[in-house]
Every structure is written in C-alpha cells, then in structure tokens.
C-alpha cells in the first residue's frame, strides 16, 4: 500500500492557518474576538481553502504574555467563551473539512497558576517539586534568556523561601519540572482532555526548553530523565487516544539538532516542525536578491521518515526571528526590511509583517508566497497574511503583529461593532488601515492578494503530491533565481522557479533525466508547455520577481487538469 494514498497522515497535505480567537472576530460587540465569532467565520476559512486551524492559547490567563501564561490548562478564558462554544467551533470546522489544533504550553505556567501559588509558599508546600528550585542563584548564560528586553537571568528569587526558581521566558512564567511524574501525568491528562473535545492535535510551544540540563533540579540529579524518550511517550500516548493526532513542535534549532525531535527512524517524536532555518535563509536571500542562502538551507534540510513533515512559514505571531543567521547576515536583513530600531526586537528579530517589510510591493509579496506554497512540506499561514495585513508599530513588542483581523473598511475593520478604542488592540492606520486593506474588498477583486493566496491553496490541494514530495535543488543560473524540484517517489516532479531580482532572467536548469518527449507544463500562470532537452535541461524566461510552477509531463501521463 502506498502511504500517500491513505488519509491518516493528513498533516502531510494540510494547509494550516493560525489565528488568535481574541483578534479574529467579535460576535458580541465587546471589542474582543471570541469563539462564537471564530465559528461564524468558519465559512470564510473554508472558502479560502485551509484544512487545519491552529488556535493560539485560549486558556484562562492574566495575559502578561498574551495567553502563553496559563492559569488552568483545562479552562477556556471567559472573555473568549465557554467549553460549549469551543466544541461548537470544533464541530462546525470539522463539518467544513477543517481540523482544529490547539496551542499547548507544557514548558511553564503563569505565576498565578494554583500550582505555583502553592509551590512558592514553602520548601515543603504541595506542588513545590512541580517547579525547578535552586537554593543559590545559578549563573545564567545570556544566550538562555529568551526575552532579554525584560529579563537578565533565568532564575528568580522567591523571597518567602530564599530559593530561586527557573524561568526561561518571563519571570512570571515559572518553568515546570517535566521530569516529575506528577507533572507528566497532568500534561497527559490535559492533552487527553482536549483530544476528547475533538481537537486533532497540538502546536507544542517552546519544545527544546523542556529539555535543557538546568531543568533537572540540582538535588534531583539521581532522576534519570531522557527527554527524547519522554517526547516519544507523549507521542505514543496521544496517538493511542487519537490515532492520527498531530504534534506540531516549535523547535527553533539548527537542522541537525532539530532532526532528533522527530524521533527515531520511524518518527516517534514530533510529527511536524516549523522550518525555521529555511525561513531565515529566505529573508537573507530576499535581502540579497541572491538565491544561494535559501538553496543552501534546502540542500541541508534533513530528509524525514514518511510520517514526518516540515512546516513552511514566512511569518508567525512572534518576532521574525533571525537568530540562526550570523550577526552580519542579520544586519543585512535588518537594513533591508527593518532598519529602524523600533522595528527590531531582542537584537534578533523584526516585529513586522511581510507587506510592510517589502515596502508594499505586491509583486514581491506574491513571489514570497509562491515560494512558500511551492516548497515540499506543509504551508502555515498567520491570519491576515492572505490579505496583506501589516503590523502596527504603536502596539508594544511582539503584539505589533497581532492586531485584529481586517474584515471591512469601517474604523473597527468589520472586526467588531464596538468603537476602535475598545478593540483588543488598535489597528494600523495609513497605508495598511482597514480602509485600504480588508477582506471584503479583496474577495470582490479577483486580482487581489486574497485570490492569489486562495489559488495557491487550491493548487496545493489539487496536487497533494507537493505535500508528499521531497525537495531537490539543481544548479541554476543566474544566481538571482531559486530553482527547486519537488519530487515524489513515483516520479511526479514539479520544477519551481522564483526570480528574487527585479530584472527578468533567462534560467538554465536541469530537471534530471527524463523520458524523451517530456514537457513542462505551467500550472500557475499561462498554462504554457516547454520542451525538456534529452539531458533534462530547460531554458525558461522568468520576469523580474516572477514565479513559475512547472509540472513535469511525461509521455503517457494524463493531461494536467
Ligand atoms: C513561544 C511562543 C511565544 C511565547 C513563548 C512563551 O515561543 O511562540 O509567543 O511567548 O513561547 O510561551
């Protein structure tokens, strides 16, 4: 049986869309998006064509890290709705062919979580061991501080006991001691709970931090904790509960380290991980108008077992992190896409969305999404990308890219009936205001970005082979052009060409050995056919910032539909 013909590895051909309930759609006019609003917009998501909805955290929270600081892993934040509303959303989404996955934070809680409130009281308090304590202040390697704008250590003094607790993120997010059987049990119980409510899996937050050596408390070094084994246990557990459950992990590490989080040869770890390395290399390539950085990344991208998958993205809810680039390379990207200090964050990233980084150049914007959707792997969109929403730099920190979805052209952007001052966050004004950038206008204009993205999604769904394929990067001239091949094991092949420079280019490339009489068929633009030379070589013109998806058509293949 060819695995690709079974539906159980659904994530390999999914189109994922990340949304935050509080900024998506407000159904009760209080200015805050809610679960009922999200449910009302399922039709919209289905029309766009996405097949998996990733919800950012919906749990009760003091919201000091926008919901990534949780006080009850089983709960639903009251402002967003109830468990009943949540189940309605999952059920409605499923009826439209959309699965829901939930952000899950197992690295830390809020300091307002009852476990931590108890733990901090005394050294023998209930739940004390569920967090990580040290009687003296261990040294912090500055590299380990995730939010250097607010923190300078990963250990914080708890004055009541005179001991220090571990927190890789903000000090109000104490790290859980995942080596503790009680914590492990509770994580499993929570995952099981949400699976029972119908989710198809989880986006697992901050995975590598779970496994840092400082996690095991100094006086507990007798505990034998094997992180990879633990991850495999979690995977086994969730797939026992729901056979095709997804664990999509946030692991921002170089490929060789990242690979191990997929588990062993049969993929018993995370089943999908974001490709941070290619994402960062893509920005460097765009800044230089030279394809080599992204080509290098794609060549280094490890091959995976059949059940595992890369997730391709160009933006997400955090800063655009460039931490895998060298200082000089990062500076090049800053100079090109975020020169002002107010656009930069933590010395490693940009708190911007893509359209404004590209100076509103629609052609380049389409180029980037064409690259993202043509790459083997699973595409992941962040809400608003489909209409080219920009950030609001007046909103502090990473929240600048988390402004409400722009549905219409009224001052509250069709997001809410409440006046703008009551909205979750202020929308951008000027060039990217809801008046200029909104869903309603673009859905009525077939030349809009919305229709372009919708078409890319349609092509992904028409050619599921893209999700099953692996990437090959042939030698190409000129350097400004990225050429990559998506190849499936039965010989299905697509050549994608992307010109990162403004001048048009005549591209020389080889698709490898082909049967005589093979042609390349243009899927995206003009449906033109191009003969392929005996040695697989082709010469094709690509306009400045142009893109082409060319399906290999062998003699005897059915005509492309
Ligand atoms: C992840 C999230 C980020 C959050 C952090 C702490 O990196 O993407 O938004 O602040 O974890 O939970």
From TrEMBL:
<dbReference type="Pfam" id="PF00128">
    <property type="entry name" value="Alpha-amylase"/>
</dbReference>
<feature type="domain" description="Glycosyl hydrolase family 13 catalytic">
    <location>
        <begin position="18"/>
        <end position="460"/>
    </location>
</feature>
<dbReference type="InterPro" id="IPR017853">
    <property type="entry name" value="GH"/>
</dbReference>
<dbReference type="InterPro" id="IPR045857">
    <property type="entry name" value="O16G_dom_2"/>
</dbReference>
<dbReference type="InterPro" id="IPR006047">
    <property type="entry name" value="GH13_cat_dom"/>
</dbReference>
<feature type="region of interest" description="Disordered">
    <location>
        <begin position="404"/>
        <end position="423"/>
    </location>
</feature>
<protein>
    <submittedName>
        <fullName>Alpha-amylase family protein</fullName>
    </submittedName>
</protein>
<dbReference type="InterPro" id="IPR013780">
    <property type="entry name" value="Glyco_hydro_b"/>
</dbReference>
């Amino acid at each position: 049986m060819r695995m690709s013909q079974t539906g159980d590895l659904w994530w390999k051909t999914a189109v994922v869309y990340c949304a935050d309930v509080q900024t998506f759609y407000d159904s009760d006019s209080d200015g805050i998006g809610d679960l009922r609003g999200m449910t009302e917009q399922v039709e919209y998501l289905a029309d766009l064509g996405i097949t998996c909805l990733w919800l950012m955290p919906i749990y009760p929270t003091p919201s000091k890290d926008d919901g990534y600081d949780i006080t009850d892993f089983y709960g639903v934040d009251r402002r967003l709705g109830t468990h009943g509303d949540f189940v309605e959303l999952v059920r409605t989404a499923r009826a439209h062919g959309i699965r829901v996955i939930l952000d899950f934070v197992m690295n830390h809680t809020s300091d307002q979580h009852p476990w931590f409130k108890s733990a901090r009281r005394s050294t023998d308090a209930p739940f004390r061991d569920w967090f990580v304590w040290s009687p003296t202040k261990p040294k912090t390697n500055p590299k380990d501080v995730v939010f250097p704008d607010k923190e300078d250590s990963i250990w914080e003094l708890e004055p009541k006991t005179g001991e220090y607790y571990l927190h890789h993120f903000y000090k109000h997010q104490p790290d859980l001691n995942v080596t503790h059987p009680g914590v492990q049990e509770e994580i499993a119980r929570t995952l099981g709970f949400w699976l029972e409510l119908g989710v198809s899996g989880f986006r697992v937050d901050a995975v590598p931090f779970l496994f840092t050596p400082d996690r095991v408390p100094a006086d507990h070094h007798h505990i034998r904790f094997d992180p990879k084994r633990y991850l495999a246990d979690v995977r086994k557990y969730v797939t026992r509960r729901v056979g095709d459950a997804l664990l999509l992990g946030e692991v921002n590490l170089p490929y060789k380290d990242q690979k191990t989080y997929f588990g062993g040869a049969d993929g018993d770890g995370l089943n999908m991980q974001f490709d941070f390395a290619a994402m960062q290399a893509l920005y460097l390539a765009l800044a230089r108008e030279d394809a080599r950085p992204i080509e290098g990344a794609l060549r280094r991208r490890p091959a995976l077992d059949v059940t595992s998958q890369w997730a391709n993205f160009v933006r997400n809810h955090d800063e655009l992190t460039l931490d895998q680039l060298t200082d000089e390379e990062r500076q090049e990207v800053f100079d090109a896409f975020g020169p002002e200090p107010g656009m930069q964050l933590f010395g490693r990233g940009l708190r911007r969305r893509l359209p404004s980084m590209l100076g509103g150049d629609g052609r380049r914007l389409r180029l980037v999404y064409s690259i993202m959707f043509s790459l083997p792997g699973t595409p992941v969109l962040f809400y608003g990308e489909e209409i080219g929403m920009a950030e609001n730099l007046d909103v502090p920190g990473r929240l600048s890219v988390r402004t409400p979805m722009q549905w219409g052209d009224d001052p509250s952007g069709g997001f809410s009936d409440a006046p703008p001052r009551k909205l979750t966050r202020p929308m951008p004004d000027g060039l990217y205001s809801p008046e200029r950038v909104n869903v309603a206008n673009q859905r009525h204009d077939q030349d809009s970005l919305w229709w372009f993205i919708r078409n890319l999604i349609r092509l992904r769904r028409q050619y599921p082979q893209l999700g099953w394929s692996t990437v090959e990067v042939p030698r190409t001239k000129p350097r400004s052009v990225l050429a990559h091949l998506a190849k499936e094991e039965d010989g299905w092949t697509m050549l994608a060409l992307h010109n990162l420079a403004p001048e048009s280019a005549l591209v020389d490339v080889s698709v490898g050995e082909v049967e005589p009489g093979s042609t390349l068929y243009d899927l995206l633009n003009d449906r033109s056919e191009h003969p392929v030379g005996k040695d697989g070589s082709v010469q094709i013109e690509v306009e400045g910032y142009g893109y082409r998806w060319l399906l290999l058509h062998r003699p005897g293949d059915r005509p492309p539909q």
